[in-house]
Design goal:
The complex is a heterodimer of chains A (251) and B (68). Chain A has 251 residues and is mostly helical. Chain A is built from 9 helices and no strands. Chain A is globular, with a radius of gyration of 21 Å. In chain B, helix 2 packs antiparallel against helix 3. The chains are: A mainly alpha (251), B mainly alpha (68).
């Protein structure tokens, strides 16, 4: 009872809530990537990638313990962000061109899967995307739990807040997975392209220690920006604007 | 043994080339260039958050034009 009273006291609730919210944001980011890539490229390799990222993360935590907060995470953000961004931009470009075409969806290269399997993985692109995302965001969650807990002098409560975020967002992701399957494939690939480009831009910039107004909230602005941009390019392509511009440059 | 190692190295290199460069090198080049500009602006205490999105918007348009 004493422990419950302690948890429910104002300061303790503050640690719980702030850790929960901060960790939830990171969990949503990784869930979005895993759901998006899994839904469009296949679940097996994606989940093996996510599981591998989690395994490496556990090893790092076991080896470094609380010293993990001294790891210069911004370099990892920069590398992972740039890799995600490069891949996401190519994906988005193909999705824009595909959505501008009339008729049946173009499976093209976005949905292409390698038949060769190694270590149970038949699609190393989805493995890599899920692995990087899980490792990076997992590290950020660990950072949040340790730094919030250390600042408040209560690592136990920040651990509870972080754990709750992982479990709740994880359950929501599993529920949402079924709904995602109902989205038309062409549209889904378009959305995933926007999300990969958004997260890649955000993480790479954060890795360069650029300050984003509103921090993680600016992700929403970035999503809106890339959505409007991609939608605009689709409309221009549909109207044949690209060919006209190309022709005018050639003359 | 050497052959297998070379095969593996080639496949590894090809995977990362396709992952990063894909169908158009301009996109990856713009991403890297944008980050370098971010570093420069940040070191000079100039807000830089808008640089990468704007550069990428232009690069995406150029890439789509090249592919059409």
């Amino acid at each position: 009872m004493g422990m419950l009273n302690n948890i429910l006291s104002g300061g303790s609730l503050g640690i719980l809530l702030s850790t929960f919210i901060a960790c939830s944001v990171e969990m949503i980011e990784v869930s979005t990537i895993v759901l998006g890539v899994g839904s469009t490229r296949g679940w097996k390799s994606t989940l093996i990638g996510a599981g591998s990222g989690l395994f490496i993360l556990l090893l790092i935590v076991l080896i470094l313990g609380t010293q993990i907060s001294h790891v210069p995470i911004h370099w990892l953000r920069l590398i992972v962000g740039l890799l995600l961004l490069s891949f996401g931009l190519n994906w988005l470009r193909k999705a824009i061109v595909s959505n501008a075409k009339k008729g049946k969806e173009d499976e093209g290269k976005i949905g292409k899967r390698k038949k060769e399997t190694k270590f149970g993985v038949d699609d190393w692109y989805s493995f890599t995307l899920a692995f990087k995302g899980t490792l990076l965001e997992g590290l950020e969650i660990v950072f949040i739990v340790i730094t919030f807990g250390a600042a408040a002098g209560n690592l136990f409560l920040s651990f509870i807040g972080g754990g709750a975020a992982i479990i709740i967002v994880g359950i929501i992701s599993i529920v949402v997975r079924g709904k995602i399957a109902e989205i038309p494939n062409k549209l889904l690939k378009f959305i995933v392209g926007i999300l990969l480009t958004t997260f890649g831009t955000f993480w790479a910039s954060k890795g360069a220690q650029v300050h984003w107004p509103g921090q993680d909230v600016s992700l929403l602005g970035l999503v809106a920006f890339f959505f409007l941009l991609a939608f605009g390019y689709v409309q221009l392509l549909k109207k044949g604007a690209a060919r006209k511009i190309h022709a005018s440059f050639s003359n | 043994m050497d052959n297998k190692f070379m095969q593996y190295t080639k496949a590894f290199g090809k995977f990362w080339y396709n992952f990063i460069i894909g169908d158009d090198w301009i996109l990856a080049a713009t991403a890297c260039g944008g980050i370098l500009i971010d570093f420069f602006l940040r070191n000079n205490h100039i807000p830089a958050w808008y640089v990468l999105p704007v550069l990428l918007a232009v690069a995406l348009g150029v890439s789509i034009l090249r592919s059409s």
